[in-house]
Inverse folding.
């Protein structure tokens, strides 16, 4: 009887599980390869097999290309701090007839994996540059567990300080002027978490004394937040949604947070009234996928911003999995870029009128 009851409960639970949205074969194959690579390098003890990761990194990485592609976007790398391995890849048009906004981008990877050179992030930043009409600066920050909290946040803020101190983007000449007064921060997953914390630190400690750089808005794209609690979306989509599951999420928090910390640490748990927000925290467009196990945390995050009086726009894309906007085969990946452009256009610094 106990066995029959257990089987019935399991069958009932299976019926309650939502069905994955239909995806093109090319997307399903890419997702399978990505998750296999992640699982291959993440060890149960919370460390990363860096030897194997190095092989995968070389296979998945794309070189910067100073020649404009079909959309007119070129790319190049520059070093910010060689001692810490902080560098950036810039995506820019060949020319521009007016100052362009700057998007500082922080890649995903659970705080422990990847770089701006990895193919999907390289492609996303190219598309961001073309779709938003912006110069994109994709930052390579230090990875966990070798460099735990707050290393990624420190590197993210230092990237803004670097740009501010130089009054522009190194490697760009007068043919591509930039408007650092219209600087936006963007990043997906762990990068979305970094976006929040870097923006908050910048607003609290650096914005008032900045020379030229003003954070005009932020894009936490399916940001990676969490807590000790298992939310309804995490439980409902466990074993069903691609990319994110409880085991991978727990690995990332174990690798990134201080040794012994729980998932209720302030780096992860920015989803209730304990969230400490700077007075000048910038306007936010929070991007959520309707098939992302983390969507409950992301909705709570947006709600916290609202309750604390911050300007926030929530853009939800039904049926979309974690990381969907990295796949141009999906129409939603184009739609989200269009929505981001509208946000940039409405939050740019007001141009100063020329002196009479």
């Amino acid at each position: 009887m106990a066995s029959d009851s257990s089987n019935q409960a399991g069958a009932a639970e299976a019926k309650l599980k939502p069905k994955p949205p239909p995806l093109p074969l090319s997307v399903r194959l890419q997702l399978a390869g990505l998750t296999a690579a992640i699982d291959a390098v993440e060890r149960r003890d919370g460390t990363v097999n860096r030897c194997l990761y190095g092989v995968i990194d070389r296979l998945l990485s794309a070189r910067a290309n100073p020649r404009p592609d079909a959309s007119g976007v070129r790319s190049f790398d520059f070093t910010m701090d060689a001692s810490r391995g902080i560098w950036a890849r810039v995506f820019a048009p060949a020319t521009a007839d007016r100052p362009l906004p700057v998007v500082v981008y922080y890649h995903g990877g659970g705080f422990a994996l990847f770089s701006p050179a990895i193919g999907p992030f390289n492609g996303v930043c190219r598309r961001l540059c073309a779709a938003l009409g912006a110069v994109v600066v994709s930052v390579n920050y230090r990875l966990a567990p070798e460099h735990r909290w707050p290393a990624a946040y420190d590197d993210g803020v230092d990237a803004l300080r670097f740009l501010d101190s130089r009054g522009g983007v190194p490697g760009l000449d007068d043919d591509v002027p930039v408007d650092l007064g219209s600087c936006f921060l963007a990043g997906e997953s762990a990068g979305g978490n970094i976006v929040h914390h870097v923006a908050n630190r910048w607003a609290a400690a650096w914005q008032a004394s900045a020379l030229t750089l003003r954070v005009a808005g932020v894009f936490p794209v399916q940001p990676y937040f969490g807590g000790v609690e298992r939310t309804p979306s995490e439980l409902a989509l466990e074993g069903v949604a691609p990319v994110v599951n409880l085991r991978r999420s727990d690995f990332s928090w174990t690798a990134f947070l201080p040794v012994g910390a729980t998932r209720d640490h302030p780096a992860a748990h920015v989803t209730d009234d304990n969230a400490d927000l700077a007075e000048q925290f910038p306007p936010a467009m929070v991007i959520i996928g309707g098939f992302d196990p983390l969507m409950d945390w992301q909705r709570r995050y947006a709600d916290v911003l609202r309750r604390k009086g911050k300007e926030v726009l929530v853009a939800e894309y039904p049926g979309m999995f974690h990381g969907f906007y990295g796949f141009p085969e999906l129409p939603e990946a184009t739609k989200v870029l269009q929505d981001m452009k509208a946000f940039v256009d409405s939050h740019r610094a007001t141009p100063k009128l020329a002196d009479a």
